[in-house]
Specification:
Layout: E1 12-19, E2 22-27, H1 28-45, H2 55-75, H3 83-100, H4 112-134, H5 152-164, H6 166-196, H7 200-205, H8 207-243
Antiparallel strand pairs: 1-2
Helix pairs in contact: 1-3, 2-3, 2-8, 3-8, 4-6, 4-8, 6-8
């Protein structure tokens, strides 16, 4: 039996140390996160600064402008102070998703603890900067203007619940999409293997799920980019709430 969930299992490579009775291990997830960081480092540090950019430098510059425009559109020019954070999030999620589409690799975003950690980072940044910049005026985020007094308490309650549920929706969206996509690819890949074992007729029948698997892999590449974009654009929108808390 081919288990489509097996590809998400964490495998210990070596033990780093212990905290009490808890083992701190270097896993395959850690390794592929470092691979993603290494690829980003090579891209950004090795791009060069030529006046006439080559292909490699052009890709890096396009990535820079893409994220910068996203921030300016969603959070204004003041939001550019968060460019290092937003750019790092976008590149890390996109590159790790890209690496995860390679057969026999590991998809980092398929684990909710990874995506939730990134979402909590954004959530805490919004809260800390919101209070740092606006003080108690940050609470204006929960009190929309122009709301009748009669329903204002209900609206404030909804706004508070919506705000504190952001890390959940922010993380689950990325996690669920990457998990579902890779499970689907694995299932159709299993069909190819099982049909191929049935002889000539089975091999002919396996062409259909094989073709679908190729199409799904191409789709997963696009989904990997779109999920990185969605996570990043939501980050920009949330940061805008910290910069301009008034509705």
């Amino acid at each position: 039996m081919i288990d489509p969930i097996e590809q998400f299992h964490l495998t210990k490579i070596f033990t780093i140390g212990h905290i009490g009775n808890h083992e701190i291990a270097f896993t395959n997830s850690t390794a592929y996160m470092l691979v993603a960081v290494a690829i980003i480092a090579v891209m950004t540090l090795g791009a060069g600064r030529a006046l006439v950019p080559g292909r490699f430098q052009s890709v890096v510059e396009l990535s820079y402008e893409f994220v910068a425009n996203m921030i300016r559109t969603s959070a204004g020019s003041e939001g550019m102070k968060f460019f290092p954070l937003v750019f790092s999030l976008f590149m890390f999620i996109f590159i790790s998703n890209l690496v995860g589409t390679v057969p026999y690799t590991f998809t980092v975003a398929s684990h909710i603890i990874i995506t939730f950690s990134l979402a909590i980072l954004v959530f805490l940044t919004v809260i800390l900067y919101g209070f740092y910049k606006n003080g108690l005026k940050f609470f204006k985020l929960f009190v929309p203007s122009g709301i009748p007094v009669v329903i204002l308490p209900l609206v404030v309650l909804i706004e508070i619940i919506s705000f504190f549920s952001r890390p959940i929706s922010h993380s689950v969206r990325l996690f669920a999409n990457m998990l579902a996509g890779h499970v689907t690819i694995k299932v159709f890949g299993a069909f190819v293997v099982m049909l191929g074992a049935l002889g000539t007729a089975g091999k002919v029948g396996a062409l259909l799920p094989l073709g679908l698997n190729v199409a799904l892999t191409a789709l997963e590449l696009m989904v990997g980019f779109l999920q990185a974009y969605v996570f990043t654009i939501l980050t920009c929108i949330y940061l805008n709430d910290a910069i301009h808390p008034g509705h």
